UniProtKB/TrEMBL annotation:
Protein's UniProt name: VOC family protein
InterPro entries: Glyas_Bleomycin-R_OHBP_Dase (IPR029068), Glyoxalase-like_dom (IPR025870)
Pfam families: Glyoxalase_3 (PF13468)
Classification via Gene3D superfamilies: 2,3-Dihydroxybiphenyl 1,2-Dioxygenase, domain 1
Glyoxalase-like domain residues: 5-154
Domain of life: Bacteria
Source organism (scientific name): Paracoccus nototheniae
Length: 187
């Protein structure tokens, strides 16, 4: 199976809190995303350049569903890197996950969701996604000049070909480094 970086998720207690936190650090305004019916979350987005984006995700206060991914069920902490998603070809569900099909506007995707609500190692193992033949969210987002510089993953082993993804070993934090107009910012 071939894996490619798709997007990184920043968890927040609420979208306004997360949007303010990210805007203060990155200097740009997030774009509206949408709701995730059945998953109890909603999001906002930022382009990280071609074929990559940042997703701010939070529990949806208007949903009756419990947030069942990115460790958001009962989340009560400052915004933080919660996990990442890799494009997989072909898409198969790793043990402990299931494949869910979703659609919103022009976007349609299949994604693996963890049965436990969070991928292993606090989200360091990726969820997997397949956008099919339709558009990718980064195709629809304005390019605000942000670029993924580095995503550090507290793992000892994972087959990666993207040099922006760094394995730092168990016990280290998962961090995201973004290149902005003012320099690099570590989240």
């Amino acid at each position: 199976m071939s894996l490619r970086f798709d997007h990184v998720a920043i968890a927040a207690r609420s979208l306004p809190e997360g949007a303010d936190w990210l805007q203060a650090r990155l200097g740009v305004t997030l774009q509206p995303g949408g709701r995730h019916p059945g998953l109890g979350t909603h999001n906002m987005l930022l382009s990280l350049g071609p074929d990559a984006y940042l997703e701010l995700i939070a529990p949806d206060p208007d949903s009756d569903d419990r947030p069942g991914w990115f460790g958001l069920d009962g989340f009560d902490a400052p915004p933080c890197v919660a996990g990442w998603v890799a494009r997989a070809d072909p898409l198969t569900a790793p043990p402990g996950t299931r494949i869910v099909t979703a659609r919103r506007g022009d976007l349609s995707w299949r994604i693996t969701l963890p049965e436990a609500g969070q991928m292993p190692r606090g989200g360091a193992h990726p969820m997997l996604i397949d956008w099919g033949t339709g558009p990718h969210p980064s195709d629809l987002l304005p390019d605000v000049g942000l670029r993924l510089s580095r995503l550090t993953l507290p793992l000892d082993r994972l087959e990666l070909s993207d040099r922006r993804l760094m394995l730092t070993g168990a016990g280290t934090p998962m961090t995201l480094t973004v290149t902005t107009a003012g320099g690099e910012v570590v989240l």
